[in-house]
Specification:
Layout: H1 5-22, H2 29-43, H3 57-60, H4 62-73, H5 75-78, H6 80-102, H7 108-116, H8 122-137, H9 143-156, H10 161-181, H11 188-202, H12 211-222, H13 226-232
Length: 234
């Protein structure tokens, strides 16, 4: 069994940053982004990301911070005003996620349009999928929840298939990395079977992560040793 302390360190950063924000009289989104940057750099660990590190990665990490604050700590109920001042955008993403959970695939687009009061853009789909995958990474949902939601979003927004493929690839890489970290996948055959069955279940074509891609996700998000990855990945 591989030490999963990297995920715990990442969660500790989120909790520490939430503590900093709650200690402020009027915390803002900018305060949250700057606190995330400082705390991640201080701990010497990466924010939650794929193989690239975009310049707005800490702004995107407000999703992770929001999820820990709501699903983990419930501070949205204890400090509603402060929470809304920082996470008004993420509250909308959350509403979109819950609408997708409760809606038939044919009704999701209309439900999202109603919530947003405008047409749905690709960035909306991307941020919602990140939200869903962070829920999985932080152990608030099981992998089958993500599979179901990816299928729904793909069915509702075929025009944004490229974004959906990117996040499908990301999720599959995280799932395989998690299984390697937990000792579920120990060899190349098990890895390949798991990958193909997962992709078949999701049903989004052209979303296969390469072993090189999985290796990077495994390093950044799980800190899996190279020796272990070499047994499983090409």
């Amino acid at each position: 069994m591989i030490d999963l302390s990297l995920k715990r360190k990442r969660v500790k950063v989120y909790i520490d940053v939430l503590g900093v924000l709650l200690a402020m009289d009027n915390p803002t989104r900018s305060d949250a982004v700057e606190a995330l940057r400082k705390h991640f750099e201080k701990e010497g660990i990466e924010p939650f990301r794929g193989t690239s590190k975009p310049p707005d990665i800490y702004e995107k990490e407000l999703i992770s911070l929001y999820i820990v604050g709501t699903r983990g700590l419930g501070i949205d109920k204890d400090y509603p005003d402060k929470f809304k001042s920082v996470f008004s955008v993420e509250m909308v993403y959350d509403e979109l996620v819950r609408a997708a959970e409760s809606s038939d695939v044919n009704n999701i687009k209309d439900a999202w349009r109603s919530i947003l009061s405008r047409d749905v853009a690709e960035v909306d789909v991307a941020r919602v999928l990140r939200f869903i995958i962070v829920l999985y990474y932080l152990d608030f949902v099981q992998h089958d929840y993500v599979v179901k939601m990816l299928r729904k979003v793909a069915g509702a927004f075929p025009e944004y298939v490229e974004a959906i493929r990117r996040f499908t690839k990301f999720f599959v890489a995280i799932k395989i990395s998690s299984d390697i970290a937990n000792g579920v996948i120990r060899d190349k055959m098990k890895k390949e079977i798991t990958k193909q069955l997962l992709l078949l279940d999701i049903g989004v074509s052209k979303s296969v992560p390469s072993d090189r891609y999985i290796r990077e996700i495994a390093r950044v998000l799980f800190n899996i040793p190279k020796k272990t990855l070499d047994k499983v990945l090409k």
